[in-house]
Amino acid sequence: MQLKDRLAVITGGASGQGLASARLFLTEGARVVIIDWNAEQGEKAAADLAPLGDIRFIAADLGQEPQVRAACDRILSECGPPDILFNNAGIGYSENGRFKMASIFDTPLEDWDAILRINLTGAFLMTKYLGQAMVGRKSGSIIFNASIAGVVGQRNIDAYTASKGGLVALTRALAASLGESGIRVNAIAPGSIDTPMIRPILTEASTAERLAAIPLRRIGTPEDIAGLALFLASDHAAYVTGQIIACDGGRVAI
């Protein structure tokens, strides 16, 4: 019970890495609030996880500041200040049908703005409105879900890469500024993870190409990310802050 009685807020918790993290945090004794724009999936996730412990769902579009502020106000009034904030929500480069994932020369401004608003500004807003409560209690763990694309260069997904690189820089900046308040700030940099978001582009050919570049020779799972998030949220990482930890099967090591 590494997180016994601690309050964890997980964005993008209705599916994929966020859902796996919510499940694991509950089994480790945490009270969990998941936030997601998809109300139907969020309600189902909360219902499915209810037998494991104290969980609730709040619907909010993290790209819309009034919705984020309302969700955070509700968390603070109904649950109290969080011990853990996992800024997991984001849009992946696999969603090329929704937004154009391309070089900056071929990326429409409205798509650039939308991708950064979802991936970077949403995390900024959640941290802005819940982080103050952590400062007040002088403890907490903030985790950003970045990407190896924010650490090493990747071609033709420039808005996505910029948004994840922003999270990497924000992680380090907040670790420096919030450390004196007892708040640890770290980021996970996933590689290829088998989630509903990325599954549409995992064709046989693309998977074989990805595996050839991964020393562990497998695609990651949401549970891989959840395990690392648990470590960063727990007392086992009490002296870890400002770190960008790749969870990619060794992809950026070679």
Summarize the structure in words.
It is a single chain. The protein has 254 residues and is of the alpha/beta class. The chain has a single domain, classed as NAD(P)-binding Rossmann-like Domain (Rossmann fold). 43% of the residues lie in helices and 15% in strands. It is built from seven helices and seven strands. A seven-stranded parallel beta sheet has the order 3-2-1-4-5-6-7, with helices on both faces. Helix 4 links the parallel strand 4 and strand 5. It is globular and about 45 Å long. The mean pLDDT is 93.
Secondary structure topology:
Elements: E1 7-11, H1 16-27, E2 31-36, H2 39-49, E3 55-59, H3 65-78, E4 84-87, H4 109-137, E5 140-145, H5 158-178, E6 183-190, H6 204-212, H7 222-233, E7 244-247
Parallel strand pairs: 1-2, 1-4, 2-3, 4-5, 5-6, 6-7
Helix pairs in contact: 1-7, 3-4, 4-5
Helix content: 40-55%
Shape type: globular
Number of strands: 7
| CATH architecture tag | 3-Layer(aba) Sandwich
How do the helices and strands follow one another from N- to C-terminus?
EHEHEHEHEHEHHE
Descriptive labels:
7 helices, seven-stranded parallel sheet, Rossmann fold, single chain, globular, alpha/beta, 254 residues
